[in-house]
Design goal:
Helix content: 10-25%
Mean pLDDT: 87
Order of helices and strands: EHEEEHHEEEHE
Strand content: 25-35%
Distance between the termini: 20 Å
Radius of gyration: 16 Å
Number of helices: 4
Length: 186
């Protein structure tokens, strides 16, 4: 079985791995398939990207920005989607501000895309890899697409939750309240 990587800004991957963020807000990459973006996989590795990343588009003031390595990719986190849906209400998108580190203007730009107004949101549980998984940076990982096929992970891989069960349950309740308990469980 092959594993799936989800491409996301490295600074967002770090925020997810530090427990500062629990949702992913996505419009989709330029190279998504004809059906557009969707959270197609319930579990995935967070694949840090640097090409489009801009620290100034986050609300993190003194963040330590991970550095790109042209020869290898360091996978540090695994995610499991607990809830996912498309949001068509700007008020609902605004209500998610406490669950992510992006500036409101970035979320608004994604939401107001004239091709398809709205945004996809996934509430995820993040797990830290006890030992990072280092992959060679291959040409097949390039491009503006959200999902990529990864090789089989190491058989000895161990995961630990970023947030303990009670912390996660409390944040999940707040998330469901923020979106009106209308999330679709995936």
């Amino acid at each position: 079985m092959k594993s799936i990587g989800f491409k996301e800004w490295a600074i967002v991957c770090r925020a997810l791995g530090d427990g500062k963020q629990t949702v992913i807000l996505r419009k989709g990459g330029i190279a998504e398939n004809r059906d557009g973006f969707a959270f197609r996989h319930p579990e995935f590795f967070l694949f840090p990207t640097f090409f489009h990343e801009q620290i100034e588009k986050s609300r993190l003031v003194d963040a330590i920005v991970p550095q790109a390595n042209e020869f290898q990719i360091e996978i540090r986190f695994f995610a499991r989607m607990e809830h996912g849906r498309r949001i068509d209400s700007w008020g609902t998108a605004e209500a998610l501000e406490n669950f992510h580190v992006l500036k409101q203007s970035v979320v608004r730009d994604r939401f107001d895309d004239p091709r398809s107004p709205g945004i996809h949101v996934a509430f995820i549980r993040v797990f830290r890899l006890v030992q990072s998984w280092i992959l060679p940076n291959e040409r097949s990982y390039a491009g503006c697409r959200s999902w990529i096929q990864l090789p089989d992970p190491p058989a000895t891989m161990q995961l630990e939750p970023v947030l303990n069960d009670s912390e996660f349950a409390e944040i999940e309740k707040r998330f469901l309240d923020a979106i009106g308990n209308a999330a679709v469980r995936s």
